Amino acid sequence: xxSSTMQHKFKLLAAAAAVAGAFAAPATFAQGIEFHGYVRTxxxxxxxxxxxxxxxxxxxxRAKYRLGNECDSYGEAAVMVPFGKADGAWGKYNLMLAxxxxxxxxxESISDENFDIASRQxxxxxxxxxxxxxxxxxxLWVGKRYYNRHDIHINDYFYWNNSGPGxxxxxxxxxxxxxxxAYHQNGGNAHPEADVVGKRYSMRxxxxxxxPGGTFEGExxxxxxxxxxxxxxxxxxxxxxxxxxxxxxxxxxxLALVYGKKLGAGFxxxxxxxxxxxxxxxxxxxxxxxxxxxxGTGFSGMATASYGYADFGSGKNTWASFGIxxxxxxxxxxxxxxxxxxxxGKTDGGDKxxxxxxxxxxxxxxxxxxxxRPVVRAFATYANWNAANGDAGTNGVFGSxxxxxxxxxxxxxxx
Length: 415
What we know:
single chain; 55% strand; globular
């Protein structure tokens, strides 16, 4: 009898706790929920037959010009859920999942490795705690997120990307600029006592008006390895500096410099995928991109040039790249895009791979302009490469040839 009474009391306490918890939880607002995403998918073939293949450069070439040269069907779906009040403390939960498939058949699953799903962002951001002063716009965040990403759109190359699990505070007013501080780390996959974790401490200075229409920003990242075991660990740093000029040829110009030392020495995989083991050497990259738009003419597009080297202690590996994608809109809904790109590299062992790619793509979109999406396009791509570039990343379908073509259809959109 006593046991039954106690069980009844426990049930009442649990119910009361659940009710109290429901009333104590912060409110969410359905009308403020945001849904964003990106998707691209395509089908095609090569001049040799078979499935669609893509042209890419051998090491140390780091990117490929993407128009008519993407083979993976990829999507991102992101949802943002708000909490709190518009005129007080607030919070946001952000979740992004990535979807990738091989387009090999009608039914594709994770079990047959033709379909994959991955977590890209999963973090909470809060703010609104200070009504005025330096912290008026400040935000706190913890979780895994895209952080300070910068890319060259026409080759899908993220030349700066300090993303991953971490936490920090951002948008602190400091005179003519804003400051943001963050901590990130990459966890190990071995036994905990053997893990070597790469830890990153960063300071951003941004939103600095330096000239009419021009802004300056930068980020300094200190990298340090950490382990509970006996493995050797290293340290290093990376510096990112960028000037953005608005109103340039009807669009913008971005000029960026990235320098790294020791753990910070490398190309675009750093700092996001930095390890913590002992390292040496240095690296330098320069990237310039121009988005141009001439209203009333139908012409718009993008041009870019890059140079970089990475020396890991045995000599320099260099990469140079330049390309352009002009687009002409015959109407608001029909356009023709042409993309030409050239990459060349030199390894510390003396190899000199080269790759040149040309794509012609008629397109249909819902409106005019370079950034109009969704866009459905047909494409024909021709590439030429030298022997040092091997089979140009095309899985050997062109054999010993040093040129080839691909054809296909693609849709791309974001929202």
